Amino acid sequence: MAPAPCPACGGALRPWRTVPTSDASLPGVFELLRCASCGSAVTAGAPPTFEDAHDGGSYATRRPRGSGLAAPLLHAFDRQRLRLLARHGARTGRLLDAGAGRGRFVAAAAAAGWDAGGMEPAARGVEAARDVYGVQLQRAGIEDAAVDPGSVDAITLWHVLEHVEDPPATLRTLRDWLRPGGLVLIGVPNVRSLQARIGGDRWFHLDVPRHRTHFSPEGLARAAEAAGLEVVAFHGVLLEHNPFGMWQSVVNRLSGTTSYLYYLLKRSAPLRLRPLAITLASLPLLPGLAALELAAGARGRGGTMVLVARRPR
Ligand SMILES: [Zn+2]
Q1: Considering the entire predicted model, what is its pTM?
Q2: Domain of 116?
Q3: Band of the pLDDT at 67, cuts 50, 70, 90?
Q4: For FRET with 312, which of 20, 105, 250, 263 sits at 20 to 30 Å CA-CA?
Q5: Helices 217-226 and 167-177, interaxial angle, to 10°?
């Protein structure tokens, strides 16, 4: 049987590298294949079940450690996402956050004047959105959601596309929801980033086996175009995931552990002295690595990227 083609561009996939899981709740070593045409990569093998991958472990919706302290930072992340929309002319109307998690961004968009909603397949996300933010999410995956065609002014697809099995099908669905001229922001990790190169098989944003497609900018643009979307812009200087991802990738590389602090904060790693000591000793590296990451992002090599695309008028 011929191997499946690249989900981003349809090119040929070849063996690339093996990668250890970062999450003790999903143990194993996973093979990555890479596309000879667009440079995107794919996690080989069957995906984990939805319950294992997204309703437990670090994705369980218990309150993360330190989340009260993080609130101002989370507001800043949401404001940057809203500014990206505004910069490309989307300031008002109906907004959907597809794969809305706990609904935090839907609440932020509503507070900024959008008629905001979203859908989320995980029951615990929908419950947390209602209880924490007073947001009513539609409990559905993108393929099953009830949205009228051509009814939406803006969609945010934030760290969702790397999780789906058929990215072009997901993008075609979003395109159909948009009114002509409507915008979609697609945020995903960038496999061509500087931090991906530094982190190697312990790059923070690999997150195998949850992440199925590891997009290059070229692959993401081709997938969007194949779905009938028009590429408007790329952004790579992003506060939300990038400086932390660079620092964590360096710590992973130095310590031989994978994202220990992240999973400790998400309450899915036990308290252990050695990785904690290495992590704490690496904290002074954070400002310098954040500056390095922002410089890389300005050159299109940020750890995550946002593609802004439009349904043609
Ligand atoms: Zn490809």
Answers
A1: 0.91
A2: 13-310
A3: low
A4: 105
A5: 50
The string of pLDDT tens digits covering residues 204-247 is 999 999 999 999 999 999 999 999 999 999 999 999 999 999 99
| CATH of residue 46 | 3.40.50.150
CA of 220 relative to ligand 1 center, distance in Å: 9
Looking at residue 60, what is its pLDDT? Answer: 54
Displacement of CA 258 from its chain's centroid (Å): 18
Ligand 1 centroid to 36 CA: how many Å?
Answer: 7
Ligand 1 centroid – CA 273 distance (Å): 42
Q: How many independent structural domains does the chain possess?
A: 1
The answer to whether position 62 is within a domain reads yes
Non-local (6+) Cβ contacts of 190 within 8 A are 196, 215, 216, 217, 236, 301, 302, 303, 304, 305
CA of 165 to the centre of ligand 1 (A): 14
Residue 46 in domain: yes
| Sheet architecture: strand order including 94-98 | 115-119, 94-98, 152-158, 178-189, 304-310, 230-235
Measure 192 CA to ligand 1 centroid, in angstroms: 13
pLDDT of 23 over the 80 cut: no
Residues in the chain: 313
In a domain, 92, yes or no: yes
Ligand 1 center to 11 CA (angstroms): 5
Measure 222 CA to ligand 1 centroid, in angstroms.
8
Q: How far is the CA of 3 from the centre of ligand 1 (A)?
A: 13
Instruction: Report CA(300)–ligand 1 centroid distance (Å).
Output: 18
Asked if pLDDT for residue 66 goes beyond 70, the answer is no
Answer positive or negative: Cα dihedral of 9, 10, 11, 15: positive
